[in-house]
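Notes, p. 3: input format for complexes.
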Amino acid sequence: MTVTESPPLSTCTVRIERRGGRGEAGAQALERRLRETRGVHDVDVSFRIGSARITYDDSVTSEETLRQAVRDRDVSIQDDPDAPPDEVTSRSELRREAVFVGLTLVGMLTGLATGWLEGPSLLTWGGYGVAYVFGGWYGLKGAIETLRHRAVDIDLLMIVAALGALSIGAPFEGAMLLFLFSLSNTLQHYAIGRSRRAIKSLVEMRPDAAQILRDGEEVTVPIDEVAVGDVFVVRPGDKIPLDGIVTSGEGTADQASLTGESVPVPKEPGDEVFGGTINESGSLEIEVTRQAHESAISRLIHMVERAQSEKAPTQRLIDRLEQPYVLGVFALTIAAIAIPLALGSDFTSTFYRAMTLMVAASPCAVIISTPAAVLSAIASGGRQGVLFKGGEHVETAAEIDAVAFDKTGTLTQGNTQLTDVLVRDGATDETLTDQELLSLAAAVQARSEHHLARATVAAAKDRSLDVPDAVRFQSVAGKGVNADVEARTIHIGNPSYFETVLGDVAVDGLEPALDRLQTLEVEGKTSVLVAREHHGDVTVLGWLAFTDTVRPDAAEMIADLRSLGVEHIVMLTGDNERVAQRIADEVGIDEVQAELLPEEKVATIEDLIERYENVAMVGDGVNDAPALATATLGVAMGGAGTDVALDTADVVLMGDDLSKIPYVLGLGRKTRRTLTVNLTIAFGAIGLMVGTILLRGIPLPLAVVGHEGSTVLVSLNGLRLLGYRG
Ligand code: ADP
Ligand code: MG
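Output follows (726 residues plus adenosine-5'-diphosphate):
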């Protein structure tokens, strides 16, 4: 992802009407017009899926102005942005399309049968008439709408070809073309609808009502009427209706619907639970933290919809080429009529051959090959709790050569625990106990959000220590903290803190203390020094050591990445070299970059991009945001709980499941292979048929079958990605 320099841009996704035809040339025309609108930077329009995604400069224009600009182009838009996505590709619409296809078939067969049996010609022509009207209906509508935007598309090609066949007395061939054309269009709409609905079914898993506790009684309340702060009850086997925090009870939740994690997650008071997941065991009381429409699962669904509205680069290219290609096919057809006629060929056979050429050369399969695959891939990710923020990132995921991981909270569980409190002998006149040392440290750390700080405070609380107040707290990123406790300044930090922040002060006992620190670190413990300053004299009081559990599946995940062909795996951390190296050895990481300040993480990613070109960065999204933004592909974990990750990352894992990282790269690679196969089928069919026609000619029905057959084939091949499990 590229970091945009000024100005800050916003993106909105407008739901627009879907259009019956196949081509996107009309959408391209609308894109061009919208790009001319003031303040607009980028536009993706698709009539096929019914969306317009506009990136714009907030200070120049507004979403409302842009919606109006779309309306001004005679494109109707859906006004309720919160309406569920499938209202755009409704089932009733699909059903009508299917009926039209059926009528086309009946008309075509009637025409064929009565013609063959030499029945009344009225019936023959009636049959073909029905086939032409119903088979051509949506295509003609699409073609006319595109023409009104002063563009031509493949729908127009198909209509002209059918009428051409009719004009040379081949009504059956024309009817068959329209039949297969409308059939494959309906299949495409079904395929696209499937990839949209795949996600929507998630929200339907959520119950409509919650059991709310009111004055000790359970009342059934529809989820839309539940307020933040209400408490509801779930029993074993119940679906959890809303996002909240457990207030009492213990149990396990199956969060697969949201995060794709198959292992149940233990829940106890203070833990976050999510609507749409299942409470497997234990009764829980849960306080609502988000209203239904803001829940993690609703956000996931809306994000997937937005993601599907962003075109992948391959698709942008193809959509841009549609119109020139169509014009090229028209030119070819005219040449195929004019040249033989000028050379004295027979009109009917020349025209027949030109129509065959026109059908064979039409790029329908090329045009559908990409969206069928990319939309399915995004939907498949959504069902696994993996949110690609756009089709572009699916393609990028296929290219990744190196992966960088943040250590704390990503490779480790992030549940840092204090393991050792060590007092330095003879540090002070009065003897300091380890309890006193811990409470001094906890006093300072109570002001910090750092994971080491939280572990320190939790340890003091566990031991029921009295923690004094601290004032004048200061934090030095990546190094340490200090504050005044009981009129003395307490410093807590790593060697770099003592070198740089206290560089000018002689610290009593520093040398042996640093040696001791090293010994702790060799054991794999992240360690800091605690010192006290009094009248400008600083004395080391002791050490605090911490550990954090490596995630059990980390080693397997790294191995999976290698078998996918990732060349180089790196760990980035602010923690010290020795601890980092130990974890790296344990899970099988190639390179360790330790003791990095936050801004150095960005520089390290830039350096990796120099060396490996396409680099993914995986982090928990809170303090890794700049690095996530710099990487070619930023992957944030734990998206269900936080919003921060959603802003900076390109791919968001809703849960904490590391196995989803190989899944992301695997899905990217699989999608790219599918695209290659699809484009090969599409261009192969065109090349083969056009070549044969030019050399010796093929019957029109065969060209029709080859053309429409390849279109259906690429749609179905793309749809297969919906089932990708990694
Ligand atoms: P990471 O997220 O990898 O732990 P940070 O940049 O947050 O990286 O921290 C790097 C190091 O800075 C820590 O390992 C610790 O030595 C020191 N440090 C940062 N904040 C604190 C703090 N509040 N208390 C003690 N040490 C800290
Ligand atoms: Mg971290």
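DSSP finds 24 helices and 26 strands in the chain.
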